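Chapter summary example.
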Amino acid sequence: MVALRWTDFHARLHQRLKRPKPGSRPSERPSYLLPQGQSVLIAVSGGQDSVAMAGLLVGLQLKWDWQLAIAHCNHRWAPIEDDAAIQVEQLAQLLGLPFFLRVAEEPPKGEAGARNWRYGQLKEIAQQSGFGAVVTGHTASDRAETLLHNLARGSGLDGLTSLGWQRPFEFKSRQSESQTFRATQPSESVKALQLVRPLLDFTRAETVEICGLLELPIWEDPVNQDLSYARNRMRHRVLPELVTQINPRAAEHLAQTAELLAADVQYLERQAQTLRQRAETSTGLNRRMIKDAPLALQRRAVRQFLQQRLPQQPNGNQVEKFVELLQAPQGSQTDPFPGGSIARVIGDWVCLGASAPITNP
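The structure predicted for these 361 residues follows.
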């Protein structure tokens, strides 16, 4: 295992991790992104961001008593990805960490398909080997790109803040889609597996500097230069234009905006949860309790209600169809939601159920 030099970047990440995670309530017991003694699976592509993250976490390992390991997912989009897998395994050996490799049996299709496959493999490794957190190397630059990309697609606040510090990384058991992985890790029960992004305070330029200071090798994925992908066009065309022509710190400021919006989203979600819990039964929502609330809370309460009852996440149109019934005449109803259920007005209630009539709650 190589001894990595201590840098100001280590100190900066250490101070971030010592603070309760963003969004924690002062009245609650402090919650941290990567608690003392956590078992952490580091997702490493071989690019600068994930390699820098691995170097920083290894430098902080003794201070936090973490159990660290590295995982790499080979999509098999091109033969050069085999070289990346070898390089990441060599990095794991250099850092003295266990290594897990997953190789796709069939190359996933498109960005979304690759992401779904990759995250599925990471969850599987974590579930099988007892990790409490999976960490990815997303940076402030990625957060800025995500905000711009989702803004251009017409997203609401939730979409603009979708790249947050932490979220539950729930595992659903399914048959592996990949070849077996190498290396082993002692198995233990997984409790509330988390996906954590500890580098959201760092920019992409800084991760290059970190790799240079720590003398860590970087593999450049040629797919990241392919402008047929929307994410790459945002990275290589749109954001650089903002930086060079509008504001040199545009990426940092956009990431800060996402952080501010995330606090607003969290507050609205909590208020909507309180409203929903007062108004709901197993089959419907009391519209008298909801219809006079601000529209932002109506939409969020309805979406939370639908999330618990539909087989998939409701989209904006489906939420709006339900919200319109809060003010609609008796007997009004929607067309079927995913799974075939229908929302209809019955007395003071908007009920969700099968196409057969629903009795008043």
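To summarize the output: The radius of gyration is 23 Å.
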